[in-house]
Design a protein that fits this description.
Layout lengths: L7 H31 L5 H14 L7 H8 L9 H21 L5 H17 L6 H32 L5 H41 L11 H17 L2 H10 L5 H21 L5 H16 L6 H36 L1
Helix pairs in contact: 1-2, 1-4, 1-7, 1-8, 1-9, 1-10, 1-11, 2-7, 2-8, 3-7, 4-5, 4-12, 5-12, 6-10, 6-11, 7-8, 7-10, 10-11
Membrane topology: Multi-pass membrane protein
InterPro entries: Phos_transporter
Pfam families: PHO4 (PF01384)
Amino acid sequence: MDFGGFSLLLIVLIGVALAFDFLNGLHDAANSIATVVATRVLPPLVAVGFAAFFNFAAYFFFGVHVANTVGKGIIDPGIVSDAVIFGALMGAISWNVITWWAGIPSSSSHALIGGLIGAGLAKTGFSAVVWSGVLKTASGIIISPTLGFTLAILLVLIVSWLFARATPAMADSTFRKLQLVSASLYSLGHGGNDAQKTMGIIAVLLFSHGHLGESFYVPTWVAITCYVVIALGTMFGGWRIVHTMGSKITRLSPQQGFCAETGGAITLFFFTNLGIPVSTTHTITGAIVGVGSARRMSAVRWNVAGNIVWAWVFTMPMAGLMGAFFYGLARLADRAFG
């Protein structure tokens, strides 16, 4: 790995990628802690520290399958340039800021994918896109919340049967302890899937500058840095979105919180090991709706859930448009000052 040849522009772009990673952690903190905060198992400040620790710990549990997908499975690495990466990152960051400010739990993952596709299309047209990777990623938009929903309902049924004879006080005490386990597992899954997306971006940027030699790979320092930065972002939390995820969709008990987090964690572990970049937001939202529906359909505020789904639908195309716009700006700046 040749550090001596890093240009100022490359360093700046790596900094922008890490800014996205930080914002990803901040934006998606709600995914990891909304349920434990809503059920009052942990106070908010302790919860974000807890989630941040396990976000970083994911480094020791997962490989780089998702990073490889993002780095070379969305757009052709051969067309990647500084302007493409800048456009992709700024498109994703812009959409994240808009949805964070509005308190809408959109997907940082799909914002990044949309930004990449938009910037790639703006540069070379449809030939830039690796359609197999895009279709694999797009399938996660439907499958991950559906799987989270299904697993959460199954877990509710299982634990309800197991604790049918338990007193409410005993069940509440047990699941308050178990939620610490399920929340840690979900935070591991969040760190494992989401930090790798920024790894892929930085690795393909290094590859395009010739710092990885002939073959694409993710350097160890890139992996560690991305896990540290996403953990720091989680430490700062995203309180508007915590409120939406933890209380606006449905009211949660510790038992329901455990089932939602466990169903979400299983889903994230499954997709991460397959190398598919999925949305932790989609996953936990599906699981929360699942546990609410298991109680009764009217327990879910379907208008709130519907607004979240619309945000999912618009995320990739809006981030793509913004990615193309910022790619164009970068090209104009290059011609003006290059």
